[in-house]
Amino acid sequence: MSANHHDHSHGQGSAGNPGQRRRLLVALGLTWGFAAVEAVAGWQGGSLALLADAGHMVTDGAALGLALLAAWVAARPPSARHSYGFGRAELFAALINALAMLAVVAGIGIEAWSRFAAPHPIDGALVSTVAVVGLAINLFVAWLLSQGQDNLNMRGAFLHVLGDVLGSVAAIASGLVVWLTGWTPIDPLLSLLIGGLVLASSLRLLRDALHGLMDGVPFAINIAALGRELAAVPGVVEVHDLHVWALSGERLALTAHVRIKDLADWPAVLQGLRHEAAEHGIGHATFQPESLPWEPLTRH
Questions:
Q1: Contact yes or no for 188/48 (Cβ under 8 A)
Q2: Coil/strand/helix, residue 213
Q3: Strand-pair category, 252-260 with 282-291
Q4: Which candidate, 132, 170, 136, 165, places its Cα nearest to that of 47?
Q5: Distances in Å between the alpha carbon of 194 and those of 67, 204, 241, 270?
Q6: Which helix or strand (DSSP H or E) is residue 238 part of?
Q7: Over its length of 300 residues, how does the chain's per-residue pLDDT go in tens digits?
Q8: What's the chain's Rg over C-alpha atoms?
């Protein structure tokens, strides 16, 4: 009878941890609360930059709610049907958030173009005052979410809030310029600038989310270098069939076949392999030992 030796090291990571969910909940309340204030002020003041920022905050609230839901789902334990758990929910949330931001950027671009053709009157003083308060709130929310940037789900939520920080800065600048000079084209111009910055970040998030959902090797991992480091562990002859992928927004998994000189050394070799995997942030590692010569092992 042939026997395969499978050894696992498990790490739950911090996907969906209570601290993460609390930060998302506070961010959600602040974001949606001030979005209503900005929407009213932007409508009364006639500022696209302020309305764009309010629109960002509304979509951000939805994004934060989605991220909160994903963090809760990801925290559920593995089941008989989902033996790896539900961490992929975070990758799906990041994908949806990236697509939502692309839609927001497109809407801002269309509206800005129409405002160049038909300028609207703007209350610069009102716009600047409200935008300053919005900037303070957005900076606080961004600080809350910046503590989870190793998680793709939190990174997606942070990206939305970063767009609001930039939008608040644009609204402040727009209001001041209009207030002091009366030059209204600055409003859609700054809106387009902020939209371009958010577009670049959204495309990167979209790339990372799709890459993770397709079981791509995480961009932070150089799989060739990792293979060489694993092969350099004392007692290892060769490492092959090496695979690394993301289980969630921050949990990584690895599988590999390892040829070793003597199966009696396997406990010590396994410890060295686990250490190397952990050095690369891989919390779930599965190693299949193979002895020399390469014929299948047998038990009697």
A1: yes
A2: helix
A3: parallel
A4: 170
A5: 23, 16, 45, 50
A6: strand 236-246
A7: 333 444 444 444 444 466 677 777 888 888 878 877 877 887 877 776 667 667 666 666 777 777 777 777 877 888 888 888 888 887 888 888 888 888 888 888 888 888 888 777 777 787 788 888 888 988 888 888 777 555 666 777 787 777 778 777 877 888 888 888 888 888 888 878 877 877 877 888 788 889 988 999 988 899 999 999 999 999 999 999 999 998 876 789 999 999 998 889 999 999 999 999 999 989 899 999 998 765 555 554
A8: 25
Residue 127 CB coordination number (10 Å): 31
What are the chain's domains? 18-213 (1.20.1510.10), 218-291 (3.30.70.1350)
Assess contact for 198 and 164: CB atoms under 8 A. no
pTM passes above 0.90:
no
